[in-house]
Write a structure and sequence with these properties.
By secondary structure, this protein is of the alpha/beta class. It has one domain: Spore Coat Polysaccharide Biosynthesis Protein SpsA, Chain A (Alpha-Beta Complex), CATH 3.90.550.10. It is 30% helix and 23% strand. It contains seven helices and ten strands. β2 and β3 form a beta hairpin. It is globular and about 40 Å long. It starts with a strand and ends with a helix.
Length: 194
Amino acid sequence: MSELWAIILAAGESKRMGSPKMLLNFNGRSMIENVIVNVTESKVDKIMVVLGAYREALADQIGKLPVRYCYNDNYKEGMLSSVQCGFRNLPSDFKAALVFQGDQPLITSNAINKVINAYLSSEKGIVIPVYKDKRGHPLLINIKYRDEIVKLSPEKGLHSLAYNFPDDVLEVETTESGILRDFDTYEEYKEGVN
């Protein structure tokens, strides 16, 4: 049976944080471990982590977790290059992939399952969780868009996919603000941990 994959983006340089944010302690685990654990507790079948900057340190950190990883040589080109790397490295028969940012440890398995359930019960190829009218993560994308994703332009990014195919988008209301929350600066991180 074809599978639901998670693509977790963990290739960034953490420039605004000033240190590798995926390795920062967040409630007893590293930030990236929190994201992976939340995904493993959901209905996702398998996980692909996209590494770039700090690849050795991150690979050491997640080596014992049930994930595969790929390396994005072009990580300095921005987030879309990591999304494209993740999709290129999935098996040819995946059903859909959910795209996560590695600095979003507050996305719960509940929120993930809500997106998956909406996808499974609809005919839509792109499913996006929404909190108070704002779109967040994870973005679920059907395999039929794999080639489109590889062709997207870095200036417009992954979200342009939903704008290019508005009739195939399903927004799912959630009560969880964690779908919007990422940590780019040390101040945001300190505030989020407390």
